[in-house]
Amino acid sequence: MATAPKRTPRIMQVLAKSWITPYMIRVTCKADWMTALDAGIAGAHFKLFIPKPQQPDETFLAELENGPRPDVRTYTIRYVRPDAGEIDIDFVDHGDAGPASAWARRCAVGDIAGFAGPGPIKLKDYYADTYVVAADMSALPVAAATLEAMPRDAKGVAFLEVTSPEDKQDVIAPEGVDVHWLVHPDPHRVGTQSIDHISALPAFTGTVQTCIAGESGMIKALRQEIINRRGVPKGDAYISGYWKIGLIEDEHQQQKRAEAG
Question: Average pLDDT, whole number, for the chain?
Answer without folding.
Answer: 92
